[in-house]
What we know:
Oligomer: single chain
Radius of gyration: 23 Å
Order of helices and strands: HHHEHEHEHEHEEEHEEEHHH
Low-confidence stretches: 62-73
CATH topology of the largest domain: Rossmann fold
Strand content: 5-15%
Helix content: 25-40%
Number of domains: 3
Amino acid sequence: MLKLKHSQALEELLGSGKISESGDERAIATHLLDSPDIKPARVSQFEYEDLCSLVGCEPTRNNLLQEGEPYQKQFHFKNDGVPFPSPKKYKFKFIDLFAGIGGFRLAFQSLGGKCVFSSEWDKSAKITYEANYGDYPYGDITKIAETEIPDHDVLCAGFPCQAFSIAGKRGGFEDTRGTLFFDVARIIKEKQPKAFFLENVKGLISHRSGKTLETILKTLREDLGYYVPDPKILNAKDFGVPQNRERIFIVGFHSSLNIADFEYPKKKNKSVTFADVKEEEEVSVKYFMSTVYLQTLKNHRARHEAKGNGFGYAIIPDTGIANSVVCGGMGRERNLVIDHRLSDYTPITKIKGEVNREGIRRMTPREWCRLQGYPDKFKIVVADANAYKQLGNSVAVPAIKATAEKLIITAKLI
Length: 414
């Protein structure tokens, strides 16, 4: 019988000194409370049983979830503090690698899935992830053995595209060593999920003249034996959000499912513009450009235009579609907007010059949230600079969800 509330249990676990010093103590504790019937990664069976005893639940000797209703969520620590808690009853299990702020998790969870493992190296993103889902992700996936990962039906990964140092020599599993894709591959090889869903930047297609993608597909198809239809580039603007964001999607299915065909989702016939995600009320003066910085941007664009380049800032009209939101570089300046609702032009941050009277401002983090398809109840709990970075690195949730629905239907998970 449970004896502690979620917050009490978390405090008890973290303060117990019973969790192995792996650097993932908070991840271990939150994953245990979210799934008491699954042994968390990076703890021994003895430690798992000890931790369960500490918070008043009984461990399962076999840490794999069984099929059938009696085994699903025998214990549940209700976490009332998060907007997107794990479902009590679920239809399938998935893991969230390179999780960021949980775009994959939000999509798959909304379709009846339960996340049994998450991993993300960025500490700020981990804070946002826990605030919204209750789980604090594990850290560096390269340091976690594939045997430690819980069994799952679907593997999700928006893995970074690193240079494949020896790609093309053999073109298979061994050529992926030294890259983060190798960690995806070794987990698939060990855990044999029914399906996987990978996402990456559009440039993966042309990376190293196509050799990188060729190596990835050869690994998935020939070395791991999965049915992998040709990858497809999908654009977020075709799935209900006003953002021109193209990303490559790669899905695969276990050979035992005998699947020989997969159809990616079609565009939705829904017209959306920036006006649909614009802040409803007047926003802070801190988002409005200073006259000096705005002139710098204008001069910068003029220099590039004189050279025949199109690089520079861009103003998105209310009737328009945003450029891809990205972190770094000109990410925010490529998505400026005009907003004449400012009533007080007194600066609240150090700026050069004055606040411009043209109404030109950056989009707010909440507007970026909406551009990526996150509901308004999604919590932004970090400073703006970190929020922009996290949202720029995120997946566009509606495009992920549309593809995920096709995937789980094809794999007969629902």
